[in-house]
């Protein structure tokens, strides 16, 4: 994948899904952009450069030999991306994992909570863990409730993935929130509407900060779409594109160094999967590739065999999936615990006009807001136990650096990285945890305790 930087011309505006109306609402737009916003901006810029921006919807992609749904254009559908993530002074930052807490006795000393067996003597009786989870997450010592940082630098993130506590330096100020007052325009007179003021919150990056992302090259095993005119994201370098709300612009430049996701060498049978971007799953918080019993439904796949499998699925109207005929082995692992953040609403705006009579409920998309979906936020952590070390490696290969969201994964949602974790044996007295420098992490009283 090739990496690029986005440098804002001025402020940026990325609203949440809450309504904004003049005279009655506040536009919260100083949040980090979601991957679908960048995916749409890049694809729109490429279509515009190729002179093929659609004016209306057309029949959708073929499924079992029949067009399904409608779309504006099927050009540049190969576009797949990672990011964007903030970069400042050659350091890349990633969302803080939800299971990281700060030691109450040591300011700036972070350690991860750990899954604990629900049958342990510290958790007697019934519990309200949703199926199929086996373990709750607990802390081995007193921790502060507030979260001091929202972003973790690359090197510290790798220490976290290796299940090592670490000291965190003061958080870099990556951007500021800038409030601006606007006034609604009367569509009839094109003048300011009386009393219709609103406040919009904009995101202004600090000096030297930028948004870094990585994009793939078009697939080599099939021909390019004729409307693409052979263009690549590289052809947008040193140009200005529209990104986000209120017609804001950014300059696209080649990144001086590639975007590197945190990565470690895994060992053992336990794998944690940390989301770097939000994910929309079929069963709410539970991924669609995990069944009701917690078993992982992913398989060890040969790409060439699976490519032929997909061709047959799309071209043969009589084709049906039969699990008994599946030759790819299933990964022997199960989901046993999760540490999640609050759901994040994901929506958007469709610009193309509606075709036909939308009042007849024909399902044809048109201009207006897209349906709002609730996503598992970035930083959420899923804990898996594999049958053996080999199966753990297979699971990590299937998850690490892959977008595993059940919806909008092609637009960058569900990107995650894998690390190690250990079970918290609460029935035993713990030794104080040490970081790589040998320093001890203790509670304010100097004693280890479960909290």
Structure commentary:
This protein has 451 residues and is mostly beta strands. It has one domain (2-296, 331-441). It contains four helices and 30 strands. The chain has helices spanning 35-50, 154-161, 303-315, 389-399, and strands spanning 2-8, 26-28, 58-59, 62-63, 66-67, 70-71, 81-88, 91-95, 100-102, 109-112, 114-117, 135-138, 151-153, 166-167, 175-186, 191-205, 210-215, 239-242, 249-254, 270-275, 333-339, 344-346, 349-350, 368-369, 373-375, 381-386, 402-403, 415-419, 433-434, 440-441. Strands 13-8-7-17-1-19-18 form a seven-stranded antiparallel beta sheet. Strand 7 (81-88) and strand 8 form a beta hairpin. The two termini are 44 Å apart.
Highlighted features:
30 strands; 451 residues; seven-stranded antiparallel β-sheet; mainly beta; five-stranded antiparallel β-sheet
SSE arrangement:
Blueprint: E1 2-8, E2 26-28, H1 35-50, E3 58-59, E4 62-63, E5 66-67, E6 70-71, E7 81-88, E8 91-95, E9 100-102, E10 109-112, E11 114-117, E12 135-138, E13 151-153, H2 154-161, E14 166-167, E15 175-186, E16 191-205, E17 210-215, E18 239-242, E19 249-254, E20 270-275, H3 303-315, E21 333-339, E22 344-346, E23 349-350, E24 368-369, E25 373-375, E26 381-386, H4 389-399, E27 402-403, E28 415-419, E29 433-434, E30 440-441
Parallel strand pairs: 2-16
Antiparallel strand pairs: 1-17, 1-19, 3-6, 4-5, 7-8, 7-17, 8-13, 9-10, 10-14, 11-12, 15-16, 18-19, 20-26, 20-28, 21-26, 22-25, 23-24, 27-28, 29-30
């Amino acid at each position: 994948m090739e990496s690029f930087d986005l440098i804002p011309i001025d402020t940026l505006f990325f609203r949440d899904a809450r309504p904004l109306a003049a005279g009655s609402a506040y536009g919260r737009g100083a949040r980090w952009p979601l991957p679908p916003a960048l995916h749409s901006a890049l694809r729109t810029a490429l279509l515009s450069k190729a002179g093929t921006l659609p004016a209306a919807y057309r029949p959708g992609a073929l499924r079992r030999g029949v067009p399904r749904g409608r779309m504006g254009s099927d050009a540049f559908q190969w576009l797949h991306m990672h990011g964007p993530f903030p970069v400042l002074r050659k350091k890349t930052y990633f969302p803080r994992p939800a299971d990281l807490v700060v030691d109450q006795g040591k300011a700036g000393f972070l350690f991860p909570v750990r899954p604990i067996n629900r049958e342990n003597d510290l958790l007697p009786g019934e519990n309200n863990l949703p199926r199929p989870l086996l373990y709750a997450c607990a802390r081995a010592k007193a921790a502060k409730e507030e979260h001091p940082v929202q972003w973790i630098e690359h090197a510290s993130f790798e220490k976290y993935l290796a299940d090592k506590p670490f000291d965190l330096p003061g958080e870099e100020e990556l951007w500021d929130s800038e409030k601006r007052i606007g006034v609604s325009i009367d569509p009839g007179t094109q003048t300011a509407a009386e009393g219709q003021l609103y406040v919009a919150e904009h995101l202004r990056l600090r000096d030297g900060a930028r948004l870094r992302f990585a994009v793939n090259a078009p697939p080599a095993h099939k021909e390019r779409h004729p409307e693409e005119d052979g263009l690549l994201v590289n052809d947008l370098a040193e140009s200005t594109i529209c990104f986000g709300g209120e017609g804001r612009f950014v300059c696209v430049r080649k990144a001086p160094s590639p975007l590197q996701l945190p990565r470690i060498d895994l060992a053992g049978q336990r794998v944690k999967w940390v989301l770097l971007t939000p994910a929309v799953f079929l069963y709410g918080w539970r991924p669609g590739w995990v069944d009701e019993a917690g078993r992982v439904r992913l398989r060890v796949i040969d790409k060439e065999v699976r490519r032929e499998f997909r061709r047959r699925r799309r071209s043969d109207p009589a084709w049906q999936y039969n699990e008994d005929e599946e030759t790819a082995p299933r990964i022997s692992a199960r989901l046993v615990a999760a540490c999640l953040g609050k759901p994040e609403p994901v929506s958007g705006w469709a610009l193309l006009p509606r075709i036909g009579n939308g009042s007849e409920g024909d399902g044809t998309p048109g201009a207006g807001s897209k349906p709002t979906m609730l996503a598992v936020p970035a930083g959420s952590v899923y804990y898996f136990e594999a049958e053996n070390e080999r199966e753990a490696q297979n699971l990590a290969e299937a998850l690490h650096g892959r977008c595993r969201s059940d919806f909008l994964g092609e637009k960058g949602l569900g990107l995650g990285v894998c690390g190690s974790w250990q079970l918290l044996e609460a029935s035993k007295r713990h030794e104080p945890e040490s970081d790589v420098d040998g320093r001890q992490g203790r509670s304010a009283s100097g004693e280890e305790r479960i909290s």
